[in-house]
Amino acid sequence: MISGSTGPEGSSVPPESPGLASTATLEALELPSFLRVLATYCVTDLGRREVLGSSPSGDPREPEVRRRRFREARRLMRPSIVPSFQDPVGPLLETLRPSSPHPPTGREILALASLLEASRTAVRRIRELDPPAESLLERVDPLTDLGPLIDKIRSSLDRRGEIREDATPELSELRSRIRRQRDRLYDRLRDLKREHGDVLSEDTIPVRDGRLVLVLEAGAKGRIPGLVHGKSSSGRSFYFEPMPVVEANNELQEASSAAEEEKRRILRELIGDLGDRRGEIEAHGELLAELDLLQASHRFAEETDARLADASEERELELVDARHPLLDPSLADRRERALGAAGHREPVVPLSLSLEPKRRVLVITGPNAGGKTVALKTAGLLALIHACGFPVPAAAGTRIPPLSVVVGTVGDEQDLLAERSTFSGRLLRLHEAWRAAAPRSLILLDELGSGTDPEEGAALAGALLEGLLERGGLVVITTHLTPVAAEAMDSPGAFCAAMEFDQETGEPLFRLRPGAPGGSEALALARRLGLDPSLVKAAEGRL
């Protein structure tokens, strides 16, 4: 279905009721930014709209249909499923609506014919696949074959979108009549030029208001009977229609007027035919949009070594060498095109992470700027991408369970316009997470317990961790608070992991290592970022 809100390549407004996740979660986990990058692989505006309008579904059947079609579409990828179109297709479909202020022009009708031809070719290729592509066949079976309409358009319009001279027998006969009449007129006017060459100022036979005339010298006016059709730009001659050709010019104009009316009738008929079949034409447009989305998904997968994640049992999530698409260096140029900034261009350290029923709550600790938040966001974003039916940038063996809800809180929730502090904003998002927590939920909480007094923050975080464990869903938490990590180590069903760093240099290694909690390494980071050495030394003394 063609849906979604778009702006410049690159703009996407997440839906207000996405089902699996709130708008705040989608933005926190950066799904809209990912969709804008994915949309750069599309070759039509319809496909871009389809990608940007995608949202993760809590019904596992919906993304599974897209995943089946993704697998089947692989056999259509050479050379492509959907061709590029010179002009946007969406506005063409809008011209067919009764509310459109302007009906389609001949050139726009030609473009619609190209759309229908592309859809017809795709349908034919799908039906010829052996073994059959059952899901894609199910998608195209309801479509009407609009071949006769395409043939009518092609036989009525030339390459410029003008009505062909042989579009109908009537028009063909009128064009032949016009040519014969014009030839006779030229012959008669040439004879008159020879007879009256002394008063005719030019050898040409110009056309004035659709009538063939001669050019008469100003001083000769009245010497030859006929009609004057105006002066030349110099004022020294007249456009003159001799009386012997007036009747023949009348007949030429009548035939020309009849031909123009026949052209208008043919165009009106084409527009009427398109309007009558508008619903069927839009259905073919929707097919191309979906096929463009599938084609874009395949090209994304090829460029990033992405794949469809395997389905897993409930409360089992396994990421193998996963990469966040907004950090993947292979997408840098596309990020610059879609988001205005290329971002990371260096190789990234992939993330491997495993959650299961006996270890379903993960608390990540480690140094500042060491990758805790990236790990959390990678897990959340890939779960959302999977729930949209798209391939995920991760290695084989990656498994993602069916989810009923995803809640992600990342960064500062402060809102000055709403008079909301950082901590009160976080509390509101924690309330959302608490209400949503259930056996099929994925809860992602960044910097849990921060933003307030450490002791009170740790107490609140510990109580929340205990409650989430009881509710049975999957949870990933990042924190600097040692009591929260200790709570995880002492709670059945929870475990800790730390982001590694080089013990000698203090440099982060961006690898997630299950086991004992890691330190924040705040002073090491301050030293690396160039904070005044005297301040760092004083802080170390206090520590």
Structure notes:
This protein has 543 residues and is α/β, with parallel strands linked by helices. It has 18 helices and 15 strands. The chain has helices spanning 23-28, 31-39, 45-52, 61-73, 90-94, 106-128, 134-140, 147-156, 169-195, 246-276, 278-304, 332-339, 372-388, 422-436, 454-471, 482-489, 522-528, 533-542; strands at residues 207-208, 211-212, 214-217, 226-231, 237-242, 310-311, 317-322, 351-355, 359-365, 399-400, 405-409, 441-445, 474-478, 493-501, 508-514. A hairpin with a 6-residue loop joins strand 14 and strand 15 (508-514).
Outline the secondary-structure elements:
Blueprint lengths: L22 H6 L2 H9 L5 H8 L8 H13 L16 H5 L11 H23 L5 H7 L6 H10 L12 H27 L11 E2 L2 E2 L1 E4 L8 E6 L5 E6 L3 H31 L1 H27 L5 E2 L5 E6 L9 H8 L11 E5 L3 E7 L6 H17 L10 E2 L4 E5 L12 H15 L4 E5 L8 H18 L2 E5 L3 H8 L3 E9 L6 E7 L7 H7 L4 H10 L1
Parallel strand pairs: 6-10, 9-13, 9-14, 11-12, 12-13
Antiparallel strand pairs: 1-2, 3-5, 4-5, 7-8, 14-15
Q: Rough shape?
A: elongated
Residues in β-strands, percent: 5-15%
Query: Helix share of residues?
Result: 40-55%
Number of strands: 15
Give descriptors for this structure:
six-stranded mixed β-sheet, three-stranded antiparallel β-sheet, alpha/beta, disordered N terminus, about 15% strand, about 550 residues, elongated, 18 helices
Compact description:
By secondary structure, the protein is α/β, with parallel strands linked by helices. The protein is 46% helix and 13% strand. A hairpin with a 5-residue loop joins β4 and β5.
